[in-house]
Amino acid sequence: MSRDTIRLPHDAYRLLQTLRAAGHSAYVVGGCVRDSLLGRLPGDWDICTSARPDEMKALFCSQRLILTGEKHGTVAVILHGKPYEMTTYRLDGSYRDHRHPDNVQFVDDLAADLARRDFTINAMAYHPVRGLVDPYEGQADLHHRIIRCVGNPTQRFQEDALRILRALRFASQLSFSLAIDTENALFEQAASLSYVAGERLSVELEGMLCGQSVRAVLLNYAEVLSVIIPQLHTMKGFDQHSRWHIYDVLEHTACVIENTPPEPLVRWAALFHDAGKPDTFFRDKNGIGHMPGHPLASIDHLRKAAKRLHFSRKRLHDLELLVRYHDDHPAPTRQDVRILFSKLEENRELFHTMCDLMRGDALGQAPFSHKRVKTIDEVEHIFDEMCSEGACLSLHDLPITGKDLLELGVPEGPQIGLLLSEAFAAVAREEIKPQREPLIAYIKKLIHMP
Questions:
Q1: Which among 300, 312, 223, 303 is positioned nearest to 264, based on CA atoms?
Q2: Which residues contact 410 (CB under 8 A, 6 or more apart)?
Q3: Which of 85, 146, 420, 444 is least surrounded, with the fewest CB atoms within 10 Å of its CB?
Q4: How far apart are alpha carbons 137 and 118 in whole angstroms?
Q5: What is the C-alpha R_g of the chain?
Q6: What angle do CA 101, 103, 106 make, to 5 degrees?
Q7: Exposed, middle or buried: residue 164 (CB in 10 Å: 0-12, 13-18, 19+)?
């Protein structure tokens, strides 16, 4: 037992003290201990205790409680708007579904509870008086940047297949390596990922994609990840036979992801943006590779993955737009900015995300392609300028409406929309200023009105 000091939030300390005062042992446990020892700010503070759920409910009856995890020993207390999960020390029964224990047995022993946990770096507990409890040398593994299963790694992954993805998420987020026996078991048990619910896979994959070492994880464990995203298997080793590309499709994809901001939307888009290249590939008489229409083919793969991973309709819609138009090459002109903005359905946030994706795509190609980054920077700068000056970026920004056209005598119907679209197109081509009088005159000319 070590005395390493961890600074607990006041509310977490208060919960420990209340449990202790009632005669129960209690420790903060898991990720909050790991992150504190790494010098990172924990997102959540979880507590393990000898107290049973009924005892916890009685102790904190004056507080708002969440009891959805009660049958597994978890009672969450809401303090100052933040949930603190308290879970009874337990032993897990068999895992017939490769995900959840069929039953749990409450125990009084902290050591037994830590023995059921996934990785050594998560099997540490702490109390401000008793110090650090670290029976599996998790602190040493933190120091050596190693992810190692507690006990038998094959058994750990057979119990809960999601731990396979959790291992890869931690490797990506923390830039850790997997212990040899853990890695071997991970490859052996990869097929069991097919038993895990899509929404659970999605959460872990997203964490992995947004990690700082995602490139290495994606390349080293593509075989494992292909159980969930089979497109990776086809992308791996697929030579593009193009002077624009120095990597195969998978490594290009990994490089693009690495060179985008660690935000979910752009990283998911980067993962699928070229998934359709193998489907559309051919070589010309000179041996040069071409992949015409690969963005649309990539969307097909994206849709299949989205169904498996339970993406929301909005997320899929936004990803489809990003993948469809990622291979556009807008010039740094106001006209091209308007065109791209229109393709992205006038979504300003999505425009910036597209610029991030395009920059990452350029950096994932041959070095001479990197100069495109400057062009994309200029495109984004022009967009920001146009937004700040209130420029006419879309049809909805026109200073005239359908009502104005009705007053000119245009009959109600589709012609209204067509005329407004034509007026905006003229503005986009910079043939006419986006001002009311010139636009009214332009519409009169179109309808042959004096």
A1: 312
A2: 416, 419, 443, 447
A3: 444
A4: 13
A5: 28
A6: 110
A7: buried
Q: Give bridge partners of residue 46 from the DSSP assignment.
A: 29
**Amino acid identity, position 442:** Y
Distance CA 245, CA 361 (A): 11
Where residue 53 falls (left for φ over 0; alpha for ψ -120 to 50; beta otherwise) is alpha
Dump the DSSP string for 233-302: HHHTT-----TT-SS-HHHHHHHHHHTS-S-HHHHHHHHHTTTTHHHH-EE-TTS-EE-TTHHHHHHHHH
The C-alpha atoms of residue 278 and residue 276 are separated, in whole angstroms, by 6
Tell me how far apart the alpha carbons of residues 323 and 413 are, in angstroms, rounded to a whole number.
34
Pairing of the two strands 177-178 and 74-79: unpaired
Please give the average per-residue pLDDT across 145-152, as a whole number: 97
Q: What global pTM score does this model have? A: 0.90
Model pLDDT, residue 60: 94
**Helices 294-309 and 313-325 meet at what angle, rounded to 10?**
160
pLDDT at 168 exceeding the cut of 70 = yes
Compute the residue count for the chain. Answer: 450
**Would strands 82-88 and 64-66 be described as parallel, antiparallel, or unpaired?**
unpaired
Specify the pLDDT at position 138.
96
Task: Specify whether the CB–CB gap between 301 and 316 falls below 8 A.
Answer: no
Task: Give the tokens for residue 66.
Answer: 């969440």
